[in-house]
Write a structure and sequence with these properties.
Layout: H1 17-30, H2 35-62, H3 72-94, H4 109-152, H5 162-184, H6 200-210, H7 234-242, H8 250-255, H9 260-280, H10 301-316, H11 318-321, H12 328-344, H13 353-408
Helix pairs in contact: 1-2, 2-3, 2-9, 2-10, 3-9, 3-13, 4-5, 4-7, 4-9, 4-13, 5-12, 7-9, 9-10, 12-13
Length: 409
């Protein structure tokens, strides 16, 4: 994905001045300057650049408050932005310059990183649940395709027959039942879902990675990342990802050479992206009542907070309140299929010209949704898979780095 340029750099000019100035003063008072001051300066430049990139990504997303918000293209843009932020964050942490990797194992940065990696592994379960939701939407699309085929299948200007109407009605009624089951029984899933993980050696590695850290603290809703169980809850998982996500204090920023700031930023981005995926895509025990609060002085906080508030407002709207997901295409699918069912039940033959026109308009609406799902679901699943694998890779790299320098000290 090409780099995203921030249109207005003015809001970033004063970012973190109090915190960064405090850190410079503390470092200068301890170490007379030279290499240490140069090291701090290089961190400051990279940290500010990272903050600008995060702000630019979410300013662009926040500008899509119109029809694009919560659509498949918008959601894919969100995931692209996450991958950009994650890659730059990885470069800050594991850059080989200045021997900075040796700093990662020193307190309090080691604690911040351990908490971040713990949140990351919990996000893997969300990725698996979203993959399951994408697969469900593919099944819904198949019913749409059957209905479209039946209602457009006569061709040559011939009127629709009773058999075609019945076939379309059955497909739409089956879809309605699937949607109702999803709304009323969101926790009923297979005992074991498919996952992005593979069998054999890699699965065992994921098991080892997933069980690292405070395994007992997450309770039964932690599913060790390669599948989700019937008792797993997206709402509870989001709560555990967001728990104790606190802004680092000034002395903590100073003690970590400022690296606590990007760790907090990336943790917040991870939390928001996982929350948005759960909001948009059908998934097990969806729930959006998660506390989300950011300090106003951070340059990216306003756009993320605005997006969070807007999405939460959307979830309260009458036509979305009881939906399986807030994704725009789901809303269109439910609306178009409901209108067609009302047109087809009851139906009298021969169809009047007005009824035929209404049916064809409904079919065009279904076709638009069907094409959007066909074009967008596969790329979305690939992006979620990419996020899953990047998280695993980055977490493994981080834990190896922490272990290496802990042992060397």
């Amino acid at each position: 994905m090409p780099a995203m340029d921030c249109q207005d750099s003015a809001p970033f000019a004063s970012f973190g001045r109090s915190i960064l100035s405090l850190r410079r003063e503390q470092v200068h008072s301890v170490d007379g300057g030279g290499h240490r001051d140069s090291l701090v300066g290089s961190y400051d430049v990279e940290i500010e650049a990272f903050q600008k990139r995060v702000a630019g990504v979410f300013l662009d997303l926040a500008s899509s408050f119109g029809d694009e918000l919560l659509s498949l293209p918008w959601l894919r843009k969100l995931l692209d932005g996450f991958l950009v932020c994650q890659e730059e964050f990885r470069g800050i942490l594991f850059g080989c310059r200045d021997g900075r990797q040796a700093h990662l194992s020193r307190p309090p940065l080691d604690r911040f990183l351990s908490d971040f990696f713990e949140r990351s592994v919990k996000a893997l379960d969300v990725c698996n649940a979203i993959r399951e939701g994408v697969d469900k939407m593919r099944q819904w699309r198949q019913h749409l395709e059957i209905a479209i085929s039946a209602l457009r299948g006569s061709g040559g200007g011939r009127p629709l027959g009773e058999g075609q109407i019945r076939r379309a009605c059955k497909a739409l009624n089956d879809l309605t039942i699937l949607l109702l089951d999803e709304k009323e029984s969101p926790c009923i899933l297979n005992l074991r879902n498919r996952s992005f993980g593979r069998g054999g050696k890699e699965t065992r590695q994921h098991r080892r990675v997933g069980s690292a850290g405070s395994a007992s603290s997450s309770g039964h809703h932690r599913s060790l990342s390669w599948s989700v169980s019937r008792s797993w809850s997206a709402a509870r998982q989001l709560q555990t990802i967001g728990n104790n996500l606190n802004v680092p204090r000034g002395n903590e920023v100073a003690a970590t050479n400022g690296l606590a700031v990007p760790v907090f930023a990336m943790s917040s981005v991870l939390f928001f992206v996982m929350w948005t995926l759960v909001a948009a895509i059908p998934c097990q025990d969806r729930g959006l009542q998660t506390h989300f609060s950011l300090p106003k002085n951070l340059p990216w906080a306003a756009s993320i907070t605005a997006l969070h508030e807007k999405i939460f407002e959307e979830s309260k709207k009458k036509d979305r309140k009881n939906s399986c997901g807030l994704l725009k295409e789901i809303l269109q699918m439910e609306k178009c299929s409901r209108q067609l069912v009302e047109l087809l039940d009851p139906v009298e033959f021969p169809l009047t010209e007005e009824k035929e026109t209404q049916l064809q308009q409904g079919v065009e609406g279904l076709l638009e949704v069907c094409n959007a799902l066909k074009e967008g679901l596969d790329p979305l699943e690939r992006q979620v898979r990419d996020i899953f694998l990047r998280i695993v890779s980055s977490r493994t790299e981080g834990l190896d780095c922490l272990s290496k320098y802990h042992h060397s000290e």
